[in-house]
C-alpha cells in the first residue's frame, strides 16, 4: 500500500480526494487553461473546504463554460442570475462577480506577459519550491511567495486573492510541493520540477 499525505483521508467516499492528491495536487502545471481553472476554484473555496469544491468541480465546469476565460469575461447579469440559480455550484454573488473580474484580469496577464503561466510562476522564480514536511500539521497557510503573489494580484485588480488562497493555488498548481516526505508523491513531484 502506498504511503500518502493524510489530508485526502482513507474513508470510503474520499476516492475523488485521493485521485486528486495522487494525480494532480502539487504537480507542476504550466497550462494556462488549467491554471485558470485553479484560480476560479480557489476563488470559490475561500472559507470552505477543498473537498466541497472538488466534489462540485464538474458542476463548476459545466456552469462556467469549461473554465473558458474569454466567455466568462463576457458574462452579464443574465449569466450571474443563471449561476445564482445553479444548485450544483457555490451560489455566492461576490465570488461569481470575482470569477468574472478574474477572467478579465487573467486575459490581461496573458496579453501583458505572453501567458498567465509566465506571470504567475514568477512568484516562485519559475520553479517549484520543494518543502520537506514531515507531518500534515507542518503545512503552512501562507508564505513570503504567496504574500507577494497576493499583493501583486490585488494591485492588478484580481479579487479573492488573499495570501491563504494564493498559497492554496500554489500548492494545487505545483508551484509548491507540500507533499509530506513519506508520501510517495513527494519524490515524484520533485522529479517533475
Fold and architecture overview:
This protein is mainly α. The chain has a single domain (15-192), classed as Hypothetical protein, domain 2 (Endonuclease III, domain 1). It is 54% helix and 2% strand. It has a two-stranded parallel sheet with strand order 1-2. Helix 2 (32-45) packs antiparallel against helix 7. The longest helix has 21 residues, at 93-113. The protein is globular and about 50 Å long. The two termini are 25 Å apart. The mean pLDDT is 94.
Q: Provide the residue-averaged pLDDT.
A: 94
The helix-strand sequence is HHHHHHHHEHHEH
Low-confidence stretches: none
Strand order of the largest sheet: 1-2
**CATH homology group:** Hypothetical protein, domain 2
Main β-sheet description: 2 strands, parallel
Q: Which structural class fits the helix and strand makeup?
A: mainly alpha
How many distinct domains? Answer: 1
Helix fraction by DSSP (H/I, runs of at least 4)? 40-55%
CATH topology: Endonuclease III, domain 1
CATH class division: Mainly Alpha
Cα gyration radius (Å) = 16 Å
Helix count equals 11
Portion in beta strands: under 5%
What is the general shape?
globular
Query: What is the annotated CATH architecture?
Result: Orthogonal Bundle
Extended strand count: 2
Distance separating the two termini: 25 Å
